[in-house]
Design a protein that fits this description.
The chain is mostly helical. The protein is built from three helices and no strands. The longest helix has 23 residues. It starts with a helix and ends with a helix.
Length: 71
């Protein structure tokens, strides 16, 4: 048939791509940062977000009653 050769070439190309994907998947992945560094970075980041939100939120005026019990 006319399209048999094309069909065969498509199978060869697909098989080659699958082999490449399998090779990539079998390689050990290097992590860019150790796990402890990522955890620390996330903690510091969220702390900075919290501080920023506290600074950006206007304070409510305190009444005399709450001011006395804050001490």
């Amino acid at each position: 048939m006319y399209g048999d050769e094309i069909h065969l070439w498509l199978h060869h190309i697909r098989a080659e791509r699958l082999r490449d994907e399998a090779r990539e998947a079998s390689r050990p992945h290097r992590r860019s940062r150790p796990a402890r560094a990522r955890v620390l970075r996330a903690r510091v980041g969220w702390t900075l977000v919290e501080v920023g939100l506290r600074l950006a939120t206007p304070r409510l005026p305190q009444s005399g009653l709450t001011a006395r019990f804050d001490h």
